[in-house]
Task: structure prediction
Amino acid sequence: MGITKNCKEGIEKNGVKKKAYQNYLRNNNVEFARIDNTKAYSNINFPTLVIIGKEDILVDAIQSKAALDKIGNENISFKELERLNHFMVKKGADQKTNEIYDVEQVFKDYLINWINKLKK
Result:
C-alpha cells in the first residue's frame, strides 16, 4: 500500500477533513517527510527544546521521542503537552482566525521555565 493511501486512510479514520491535510500529501511534501535529520540532531551542541502537543496530528510525539532517545543527545530536551495540538492550542481552535496564535498558558509557562533553568 502506498504512503499517500496509508495517510489518507489514517487521517480519515481520525475524522480529519480533507482540506486540513490535502496539501501535506503532495509528492514534494512526502519527500520532505523522508528527510533524515539524525545527523543534524546528533550534532546539536546547545540546549534545544522539542515540544509537541499530545493532540498534534501532524507530528507523532511517540515517534519523535523514540527517535530523539535513539540519538541520545543530552542537549535536546523533549516535552509533550497534554490536550494541545500542533499550534499549542486546545483542539478546536479556529484556524481561520488569529486564535491559533494565542497559545495556551501551559505552553508559555513551560517554555519560560525551561529558559529560566538554562540561566542557572
